[in-house]
TrEMBL record:
Any single biological process term in GO: immune response
Protein name: G domain-containing protein
InterPro entries linked to this entry: P-loop_NTPase
Native source species: Astyanax mexicanus
Length: 262
């Protein structure tokens, strides 16, 4: 818990060693309200040492609060660019008329969608749309797919949402794009021990059970499921939350960079 600066320095010194690439593009997807936008804000907050809100969040949203495709460059406290861009999308829903269309997750993976594209739940982006990128560069393509799910609702996640996430995982696999899971809301009513003291996270059987459930439902092995607690109510950052968030980003950066090299 005292290694925050070490993790920040590790992330600052990441070299991509690729002439066509300045940033690793990380695509978040997952159910409505899972904490996708909040995670992007939390990563930024961990680097800035203060709670930052760039991506719009909404508590208790029934429908996805994020409706357009947005890309966020992560920066240091001194506003220097770090080599990470997070792409935020509309949430997935169980019905076919609502939430992000599963084909658009695939289009996003392939780098076909331009920023600010407004998602249409009933049909994916058309090749004729001005926001469709016909020949995506390596920089437009996604280098890591991240499913964001909430620890407190993993066991209540609807089958159709799990299936939609499964389609994205399979496509990512065929494209050799790594897939990991960020498990949010570990501070919620999952484990009283962890709710009281986040540093007990790796000692909690209840959290381990949730990690195991994520692995069974979504596919990645347990070592690629990263539990975090986002900044959702507090006005100041703290080292414990920062370390969990930064640890997740270090692992994402490592596997995304390996995927780019191959
Ligand atoms: N307790 C707790 N609440 C969280 C956490 N992360 C997010 N939240 C809450 O969940 C709400 C929704 O988070 P968002 O980031 O807007 O969710 P999203 O996945 O972007 O959802 P859509 O854009 O609507 O699909 C936030 O306003 C917070 O109240 C967390 O780690 N712990
Ligand atoms: Mg959102």
């Amino acid at each position: 818990w005292t290694h925050k600066e070490l993790l920040i320095n590790q992330l600052k010194s990441i070299q991509l060693n690729h002439p066509e690439l300045q940033n690793l593009r990380i695509l978040l997807h997952g159910p409505v309200g899972a904490g996708k936008s909040c995670f992007i804000n939390s990563v930024m907050s961990a680097f800035h040492g203060e709670v930052v809100t760039m991506a719009r969040e909404q508590a208790n949203a029934k429908k996805s609060c994020t409706k357009t495709y947005k890309a966020y460059q992560i920066t240091t406290k001194d506003n220097e660019n770090l080599p990470f861009i997070f792409n935020d999308v509309m949430g997935l829903e169980a019905t076919e008329e609502d939430g992000m269309h599963p084909d658009d997750v695939v289009n996003a993976l392939l780098g076909h969608i331009r920023e600010d594209y407004q998602f249409n739940p009933t049909c994916p982006i058309s090749e004729k749309d001005p926001s469709f990128i016909r020949e995506p560069s390596l920089q437009d393509k996604v280098h890591c797919l991240v499913s964001v799910v909430s620890a407190s609702s993993i066991s209540r996640m609807e089958k159709d949402v799990i299936n939609k996430m499964g389609i994205a995982r399979e496509k990512a696999n065929t494209l050799d794009i790594p897939h990991v899971v960020i498990m949010t809301k570990v501070d919620d009513d999952v484990c009283p021990l962890v709710k009281k003291d986040l540093q007990k996270i790796y000692m909690s059987k209840k959290i381990k059970d949730k990690v195991c459930a994520c692995s069974n439902d979504l596919g990645p092995p347990m070592k690629l499921i990263f539990p975090v607690s986002n900044y959702y109510e507090e006005n100041e950052t703290n080292d414990t939350k920062d370390v969990l968030i930064l640890l997740a980003l270090v692992e994402i950066a490592k596997i995304a960079r390996r995927c780019v090299r191959h």
